[in-house]
Amino acid sequence: MIKAIIIDDEPNSLNALSKMVQNYCPDLQVVATADTVATGIAAITEHKPDLVFLDIELPDKTGFELLASLEPVDFEVIFTTGHEEYAIKAFKTAAIDYLLKPIDIEELERAVDKVVDKRKKSKTNQNFDVLIQNWKNAESHQIALSSSEGFIFVKIKDIIYCKGDGAYTYFFLKSGEKIIVSKNLKEFEDLLDDQGFFRTHKSYLINLNEMKKYVRGDGGYVVMSNGDNIDVSKRKKESFLSNLSKI
Asked: In the predicted model, what is the mean pLDDT of the chain?
C-alpha cells in the first residue's frame, strides 16, 4: 500500500480529493492531510509518505518552497493547482505530474498509475531536484541541467543552440563546451520559448540572439555565433521570419 498525504488549503478541494483517492485508487492510503507548508512539512516528517498531493499556492509559502526545504525529496509528488500557468514550464522540464482543479477522475487515475509504475521500477526522484534548482534560478536566468554527477548550472544567455537526438539534448555553449542531457528537445523548448529561443527544425532550438546570418532557401539555414549552420525547416520558415522582425 502506498502512503499518501494531501496538502491543500481549500477544504472543499482537500475533501474531494480524499474521497476520490479512497474510491478510485485502491493502491493508495491517505495517512494525513495538511493545509499549510508548515503543517505539511510536519506531516511528511511524521508519516514519511510515498506520495504527496501538493497544492502550489498555500497560505504561508508555495509548494515549491516546501520541496526546497526538504531536499532531497524522497517521495513522489503530484502537484494540484487551479492555475494552469503553473503547469507549463517547470513541470514539463522536470517531467513531473500535475492535476488541474477541478480534478478529473481519469486524470487522477493516470497520475497515480504513473507513480505505481515508477515505484515498481525503483526510479529515483532526481527530477524533483531539477525542478527545485530551476525554480530557485528563475530570477537569475540560469538553468540547472541534470547530469550523472549532479547539476550543471548554465546561464541561458550562454546557450548558442540545442540539438535534439531522440531522448537526448545537446547544449552548445559560447565557451565551446557541449553538454548532453537525457531529456528530449521538446521539454527544453517549453522552458526556453519565452527566453529568446526558437525551434527552427525538429532537431534544433536556437538562441535568436546568437545568430550571425540567415541564408535563404526552401527553408534556409542560420549561421550561429560559433560558425555552425542550423537548418530552418520549410514548415517553420514563415514563423521564423516573423520572429526575426521582433528582434
From this structure: 85
Domains of the chain by range and CATH? 2-132 (3.40.50.2300), 141-244 (2.40.50.1020)
pLDDT of 199-216, one tens digit each? 999 999 999 999 999 999
Contacts of 207 by beta carbon, 8 Å cutoff, 6+ apart: 157, 159, 160, 161, 196, 197
Q: What are the residues facing 55 on neighbouring strands?
A: 80
pLDDT digits (tens, 9 = 90+) for 95-152: 467 888 899 999 999 999 988 887 765 544 556 666 666 656 655 577 878 766 667 8
Q: In the predicted model, what is the mean pLDDT of residues 8-33?
A: 95
CB-CB contact of 53 with 8 (8 Å): yes
Longest CA–CA span in the chain (Å) reads 63
Bridge partners, residue 165, by sequence: 168
- Cα dihedral 61→64→65→71 (10° resolution): 150
Residue 133, C-alpha cell as written in the block: 534548482
Q: What is the 3-state secondary structure of 15-68?
A: HHHHHHHHHHCCCEEEEEEECCHHHHHHHHHHHCCCEEEEECECCCCEHHHHHH
Give the residue among 45, 116, 105 at the shortest CA–CA distance from 74: 45
